[in-house]
Design a protein that fits this description.
binds flavin-adenine dinucleotide, nine-stranded antiparallel sheet, 30% helix, 13 helices, alpha+beta, transmembrane, Vanillyl-alcohol Oxidase, Chain A, domain 3, membrane
Length: 416
C-alpha cells in the first residue's frame, strides 16, 4: 500500500510550469533492473528509473541505448511518455526503442503490451502522455555498447540548407545549430568510432567563462534587447568558430549540460529522409523535402523584418525517422524538429510572445506537430487535424480510463 501526501508542489526543470497535486504518491520498493536479456539485447526496467542510473548498468553488460535526448536525468517512463527525441537518419524518437511495457490501468488491472500482446494499446502507450495508466515497466531494445566521435564545425545557413541530404548521409547523428540574427551555423556530426576517449574542447572557455559571461550578457540584454544579435554572433565566434572533436561512450556524447533555465518550443515538421538500410514502417515519400528550408528562411526573414523581435541562440535542428506510434509527432512521416529557445538569465523572463507566435504560425503552415513536453498553444481541434490517429488514441484512452482518473488541466486541453 503506497501512502499519499498532501501539500507537495511540483515544478518543472525550467521553473516555467508548476502544480499542486491533490495527493502525491511515491512507491518506495524499487527493484531497479529486473532482467537483462543479453541474447536479445533487451533490458526491462521500472518506468521510474533515471537514464543516468540505467547507463552504468548497461555499460556493465556491454549494452547501450541506440539514441538519447540531451539529458539523462529523466526517467524511462517520462521520455517515452512525452515523445522525447534526438536526431539521426536511422533513428526514430526514443519510444521506438521500446519493445514491451506493462501498464497499471485505472481499474487496477495490469496490462502487458507489445507488438504481439495488446498491440493496439502498445501502439498508443509508447507516447502515452501519462493518461493511459501508470507505466510500471518498460522493455528497451538495446544495441552493443559503442563509442561516438563528435565533430563540430562552422558553416552557413545557406550551405546547410542547400546540402541537407548530403549532411544527413554523411553522419549517422547529424544536427545543426542556427544562430538567429546571423547566417552562422554550427554543424554537429556524431558517428561510431573505435578511437579512445578524447576531447579538443576548450573546457575553460566553453564551460566556465563562456557560460557565466553568456548569462550575464543575456541579463544585460533584457534591458537592451538590441544586444541579442551581437551576443549570438559573439558567442558563435568565441565557442563555435573552429573544428572540435570529442570521442567517448555514446551516452556521454549524446548528453550535455543544459545550464540555463529556458522556455522552449520544438515542433516536428515533415521531412523525408534519404533512404538508408534500416527497417522502416513507412513507404518512401518525397513531399515536404523543402519545408525545413522554407520554415527556417521564413523565420529568418521575420526576424529581419521585425528588429524588435529577438531570438536567443541556438535554433537547434534535428531529424528523426517516422514511426507508427499514434501520438508521436513523427507518426507516419520522417520529420525535422526545429527547437527554438529563450533563456531566463538568473531566472528572469525575457519577452518572447512575438517570436513564439511567429514561430508557431510558420510551424502550423508547414504541417508541424508540437513536442508534447514543450510549450505550445494547441488544443484538441488542432490535434485532430495534425494526427490522423487522434480519434483512435482518444477511444483507447476512454476505454482504459473511463472516469478520467489520469487527466489533469493540461490533458483536458488536449482531449476536450
Ligand atoms: C534540460 C532538458 C533537456 C531536454 N532535452 C530534450 C531533448 O534533447 N529532446 C527531447 O525530445 N526532449 C528533451 N527534453 C524534454 C524531456 O525529454 C521531457 O520533458 C521528458 O518527458 C522528461 O522526462 P521526465 O522523466 O522528467 O518526465 P516527466 O516530465 O516526469 O513525465 C513526462 C510525462 O510522462 C508521464 N509519466 C512519467 N512517468 C510515468 C509513468 N511511470 N506512468 C505513467 N505516466 C508517466 C508524466 O505524467 C508526464 O505526462 C529536455 C528537457 C530538459 C529539462
Amino acid at each position: 500500500m503506497v501512502h499519499g501526501y498532501k501539500g507537495v508542489k511540483f515544478q518543472n526543470w525550467a521553473r516555467t510550469y508548476g502544480c499542486c497535486p491533490e495527493m502525491y504518491f511515491q512507491p518506495t520498493s524499487v527493484e531497479e533492473i529486473r532482467e537483462v536479456d543479453t541474447e536479445k539485447k533487451q533490458v526491462t526496467v521500472e518506468a521510474g528509473i533515471l537514464l543516468t542510473d540505467l547507463h552504468p548498468q548497461l555499460d556493465k553488460h556491454g549494452l547501450a541505448l541506440s539514441n538519447l535526448g540531451a539529458v539523462s536525468d529523466v526517467t524511462a517512463g517520462g521520455v517515452i511518455g512525452s515523445g522525447t527525441h534526438n536526431t539521426g537518419i536511422k533513428h526514430g524518437i526514443l519510444a521506438t526503442q521500446v519493445v514491451a511495457l506493462t501498464l497499471l490501468m485505472a481499474d487496477g488491472t495490469i496490462l502487458e503490451c507489445s507488438e504481439s500482446s495488446n498491440a493496439e494499446v502498445f501502439q498508443a502507450a509508447r507516447v502515452h502522455l501519462g493518461c493511459l495508466g501508470v507505466v510500471l515497466t518498460v522493455t528497451l531494445q538495446c544495441v552493443p555498447q559503442f563509442h561516438l566521435q563528435e565533430t563540430t564545425f562552422p558553416s552557413t545557413l545557406k550551405e546547410v540548407l542547400d546540402n541537407l541530404d548530403s549532411h544527413l548521409k554523411k553522419s549517422e547523428y547529424f544536427r545543426f545549430l542556427w544562430f538567429p540574427h546571423s547566417e552562422n551555423v554550427s554543424v554537429i556530426y556524431q558517428d561510431h568510432t573505435i578511437k579512445p576517449p578524447s576531447s579538443s574542447a576548450n573546457w575553460f572557455w566553453d564551460y566556465a567563462i563562456g557560460f557565466y559571461l553568456l548569462e550575464f550578457l543575456l541579463w544585460i540584454s533584457t534591458f537592451l534587447p538590441g544586444l541579442v544579435g551581437w551576443i549570438n554572433r559573439f558567442f558563435f565566434w568565441l565557442l563555435f568558430n573552429g573544428k572540435k572533436e570529442n570521442c567517448n561512450l555514446s551516452h556521454k556524447i549524446f548528453t550535455y549540460e543544459c545550464r540555463f533555465k529556458q522556455h522552449v518550443q520544438d515542433w516536428a515538421i515533415p521531412r523525408p529522409l534519404p533512404q538508408v538500410w534500416v527497417p522502416s514502417p513507412l513507404p518512401p515519400r518525397a513531399e515536404g523535402r523543402e519545408k525545413t528550408k522554407e520554415a527556417l528562411l521564413e523565420l529568418k526573414a521575420m526576424l529581419e523584418a521585425n528588429p524588435k523581435v529577438v531570438a536567443h541562440y541556438p535554433v537547434e535542428v534535428r531529424f528523426t525517422r517516422g514511426d507508427d506510434i499514434l501520438l508521436s509527432p513523427c507518426f507516419q512521416r520522417d520529420s525535422c524538429y526545429m527547437n527554438i529557445i529563450m533563456y531566463r538569465p538568473y531566472g528572469k523572463d525575457v519577452p518572447r510572445l512575438d517570436y513564439w507566435l511567429a514561430y508557431e504560425t510558420i510551424m502550423k503552415k508547414v504541417g508541424g506537430r508540437p513536442h508534447w513536453a514543450k510549450a505550445h498553444n494547441c488544443t484538441r481541434k488542432d490535434f485532430e487535424k495534425m494526427y490522423p490517429a487522434f480519434q483512435r488514441f482518444c477511444a483507447i484512452r476512454e476505454k482504459l480510463d473511463p472516469t478520467g482518473m489520469f487527466l489533469n488541466a493540461y490533458l483536458e486541453k488536449v482531449f476536450y
